[in-house]
C-alpha cells in the first residue's frame, strides 16, 4: 500500500508541473529495463486518470456550463470568455502527460509482460486515452506515435481513422486473452487494496464494451458506416455484457498534498476557489426540484440570492454592471478531497443503453428501465437514498411516461445525462452535448437575457455576454498541442475552435 501511495504522489506531482514534450519518449523512465510491468501499470493509470480528472474535467465543465469563473478571481477568465488561442497551451500538458507518460507506460506494460489479462487491461486504458484525445482535438498522432527515433515527427491521423483503429485493436487484443489467466499487475482502477490491488479482467471487458458503445454512437452520428454500427450497438446492448458500479480511478486518495483527488489538488489546495455555478445548470436543477444540487454547490450567502442556489450568467465576469465584491453572491462549487476520478459511470452507461433501446430497438419498456436505472445509479453514487430518486422520477418533468413522444423522452434522457455527469465526468458531458445538441443553445445570448429574462429557457446553454470567439458561437474542439505543432513538420495547421470533430454533425 505504501508503494502505491508513493507512486501516486510522485506522478501527481509531475502532473501538476508543465514539463517538456516529446511524445515518443518518457523522460521519467530512462533505462528502465529493470522496472516490472507490475510497477508501470499503476503509473500509466495515474498519468491518464490524473490528467483526465483535472485538465479534461476543468475544460469540459466550463464548456458545458456547469460552472463559471468566480467573479472575484481571474484564473479562468479566458475559458469563460472563449478567449482561447494556441498560445494558451491548454493541450500541452495533456499531450505530455498522455503521450510521454501514460501511453508510453502502457506500451511498456504490453512489452514487459506475457500475461494476456494485463496486456488487455492496458489496451483498454490505451483506447480510453486515444478516444478522449480525439474528442478533444479531432486529429492527433496515433499510427506513427510512440515509436521513438523511428518516427520523431509522427503524422496526425484523422479522428475517424483513430476510432476505427482503436476498435480493431480492442477486438484483436481481446481475442488473445487466456481465460485461465488472472491479472498480475497492480491495478488502481478495478483492483482494491484489500485484494492487493489485483485487477478484475471481467470488469475491464465490461469497460471495453461501454467504450465500444460510446464510440459506436459517435460513429453513427458522424455518418461512418451508420447501418453497421447501429446493428453493433443493438447487439451489444442486448448482450448486457457491461460492468457493475462505476469505472473509477481511486488509489485511496488522502487529505495530504499530492495524494488527494487531482481536481481538488489543483483547484482547492493550490489555487484560490475559482469556480461558481453557471446559470444553466442551476436553472434546470432548481426547476426540476433536484436534490442532487446540494452535492455540487453551496447556497449563495449574499444579496438577493442569499439562501438560494444561484448561477452566474455566463461571460459576465468583470463586465460593467456585473461586478461583485464577494463570491457569496453565487453558489460556490464544492470540492471533494478523496473523490475518485470517474472514467465511466454506471449512470452514463445506462443512459447510453436507454438511447439505443428507444431510438434503434423501439423498446420503450427497456428504455424506461435503463433511464430510471441511470438516474438511480447517479443518486446512489452521490450518497442519496433510493427513495429520493423514486420521488424525483415521479415528477411529471422527469417521468419517462409523462413525455409525449420518443423525441421528448430522448430529450429528457439527454438532459438527465447532463445532470448526472455534473461533478462526475464534465468532459464527457461536453462531448455528449456536442453529439446530441442537448442542452441546446438558447436563442438569445447572455446580453439578450440580461435585457429580457423571459427570453431564456431554463437549462439551455447560453452564449457568453463577453464572447471573444464571435456572436452565437462556442468552442467545439481545442487547439493541437503547441509544442508539437512548433517542432513537428508533419503536423497540420491549427484548426479554428469552431470546426467540429468528425462525429459532431
Q: Report the order of strands and helices.
A: HHEHHHEEHHHEHEHHEHHHHHHH
The chain-level mean pLDDT equals 93
Low-confidence stretches: 1-27
Number of strands: 6
In which order are the strands of the major sheet placed?
Answer: 1-5
Radius of gyration: 22 Å
List the helices and strands and how they pair.
Layout: H1 2-15, H2 37-63, E1 67-69, H3 77-81, H4 92-112, H5 116-137, E2 140-141, E3 156-157, H6 159-175, H7 201-221, H8 226-239, E4 247-249, H9 262-270, E5 275-277, H10 279-287, H11 293-296, E6 341-344, H12 346-359, H13 364-381, H14 386-393, H15 406-421, H16 426-436, H17 446-451, H18 482-487
Antiparallel strand pairs: 1-5, 2-3, 4-6
Helix pairs in contact: 1-2, 2-4, 2-9, 2-16, 4-5, 5-6, 5-7, 6-7, 7-8, 12-13, 12-15, 13-14, 13-15, 15-16
In short:
The chain is mainly alpha-helical. The chain is 48% helix and 3% strand.
Amino acid at each position: 500500500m505504501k508503494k502505491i501511495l508513493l507512486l501516486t504522489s510522485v506522478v501527481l506531482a509531475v502532473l501538476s508541473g508543465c514539463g517538456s514534450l516529446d511524445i515518443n519518449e518518457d523522460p521519467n523512465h530512462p533505462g528502465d529495463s529493470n522496472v516490472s510491468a507490475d510497477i508501470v501499470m499503476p503509473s500509466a493509470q495515474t498519468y491518464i486518470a490524473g490528467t483526465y480528472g483535472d485538465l479534461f474535467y476543468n475544460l469540459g465543465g466550463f464548456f458545458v456550463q456547469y460552472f463559471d469563473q468566480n467573479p472575484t478571481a481571474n484564473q479562468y477568465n479566458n475559458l469563460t470568455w472563449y478567449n482561447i488561442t494556441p498560445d494558451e497551451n491548454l493541450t500541452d500538458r495533456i499531450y505530455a502527460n498522455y503521450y510521454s507518460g501514460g501511453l508510453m507506460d502502457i506500451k511498456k506494460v504490453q512489452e514487459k509482460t506475457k500475461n494476456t489479462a494485463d496486456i488487455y487491461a492496458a489496451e483498454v486504458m490505451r483506447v480510453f486515452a486515444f478516444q478522449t484525445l480525439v474528442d478533444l482535438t479531432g486529429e492527433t498522432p496515433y499510427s506513427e506515435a510512440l515509436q521513438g527515433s523511428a518516427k520523431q515527427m509522427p503524422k496526425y491521423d484523422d479522428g475517424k481513422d483513430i476510432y476505427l483503429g482503436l476498435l480493431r485493436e480492442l477486438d484483436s487484443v481481446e481475442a488473445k486473452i487466456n481465460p485461465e489467466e488472472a491479472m498480475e499487475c497492480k491495478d488502481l482502477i478495478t483492483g482494491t487494496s484489500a485484494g492487493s490491488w489485483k485487477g478484475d479482467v471481467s470488469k475491464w471487458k465490461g469497460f471495453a464494451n461501454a467504450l465500444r458503445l460510446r464510440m459506436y454512437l459517435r460513429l453513427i452520428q458522424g455518418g461512418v458506416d451508420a447501418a453497421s454500427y447501429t446493428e453493433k450497438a443493438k447487439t451489444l446492448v442486448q448482450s448486457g455484457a457491461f460492468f457493475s458500479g462505476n469505472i473509477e480511478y481511486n488509489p485511496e486518495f488522502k487529505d495530504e498534498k499530492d495524494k488527494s483527488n487531482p481536481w481538488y489538488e489543483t483547484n482547492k489546495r493550490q489555487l484560490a476557489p475559482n469556480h461558481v455555478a453557471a446559470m444553466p445548470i442551476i436553472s434546470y436543477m432548481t426547476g426540476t426540484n433536484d436534490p442532487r444540487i446540494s452535492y455540487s454547490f453551496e447556497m449563495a450567502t449574499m444579496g438577493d440570492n442569499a439562501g438560494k442556489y444561484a448561477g452566474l450568467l455566463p461571460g459576465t465576469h468583470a463586465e460593467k454592471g456585473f461586478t461583485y465584491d464577494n463570491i457569496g453572491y453565487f453558489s460556490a462549487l464544492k470540492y471533494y478531497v478523496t473523490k475518485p476520478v470517474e472514467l465511466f459511470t454506471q449512470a452514463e452507461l445506462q443512459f447510453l443503453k436507454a438511447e439505443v433501446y428507444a431510438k434503434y430497438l423501439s423498446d420503450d419498456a427497456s428504455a424506461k428501465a435503463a433511464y430510471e436505472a441511470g438516474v438511480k445509479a447517479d443518486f446512489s453514487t452521490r450518497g442519496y437514498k433510493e427513495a429520493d430518486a423514486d420521488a424525483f422520477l415521479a415528477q411529471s418533468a422527469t417521468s419517462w411516461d409523462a413525455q409525449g413522444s420518443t423525441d421528448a423522452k430522448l430529450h429528457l434522457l439527454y438532459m438527465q445525462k447532463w445532470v448526472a455527469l455534473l461533478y462526475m465526468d464534465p468532459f464527457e458531458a461536453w462531448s455528449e452535448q456536442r453529439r446530441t445538441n442537448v442542452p441546446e443553445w438558447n436563442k438569445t445570448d447572455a446580453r439578450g437575457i440580461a435585457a429580457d429574462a423571459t427570453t431564456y429557457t431554463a437549462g439551455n446553454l447560453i452564449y457568453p455576454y463577453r464572447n471573444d470567439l464571435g456572436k452565437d458561437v462556442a468552442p467545439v474542439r481545442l487547439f493541437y498541442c503547441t509544442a508539437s505543432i512548433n517542432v513537428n513538420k508533419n503536423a497540420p495547421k491549427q484548426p479554428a475552435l469552431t470546426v467540429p470533430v468528425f462525429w459532431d454533425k
